[in-house]
Design goal:
Mean pLDDT: 94
Shape: globular
Order of helices and strands: EEEEEE
Number of helices: 0
Low-confidence stretches: none
Helix content: under 10%
Largest sheet: 4 strands, parallel
Distance between the termini: 20 Å
Length: 97
């Protein structure tokens, strides 16, 4: 779903998509806004790309528990707080912040 015109924030009920293994919402034309719902961590994703949007607030510290994730790209957003130390727990993950 990258490079589309999806607007607004990421809905918390995205966690109901239990069969989802990869999620790419990067480079939305208007840019997604708001925070990243912690519920995304419940999906057990192997790939999450939310780069080049206007996401703000914080990166959820629960992302440090994403054992299955291989790629996590949150670069080029507008996060207002520091990177959670919990992300240091991620092993074998390509991490772009």
């Amino acid at each position: 779903l990258k490079n589309n015109d999806i607007t607004g924030s990421i809905p918390t009920d995205i966690a109901t998509l239990s069969k989802l293994s990869k999620l790419d919402l990067s480079r939305q034309k208007q840019g997604l806004v708001g925070g990243i719902p912690e519920e995304i961590a419940d999906l057990g994703l192997s790939f999450l790309n939310l780069a080049h949007n206007r996401l703000e607030q914080t990166i959820p510290s629960v992302f440090g528990t994403l054992d299955e994730i291989k790629v996590l790209d949150l670069s080029s957003n507008e996060f207002s707080q520091s990177i959670p130390s919990e992300l240091g727990r991620l092993k074998d993950t390509l991490l772009s912040l």
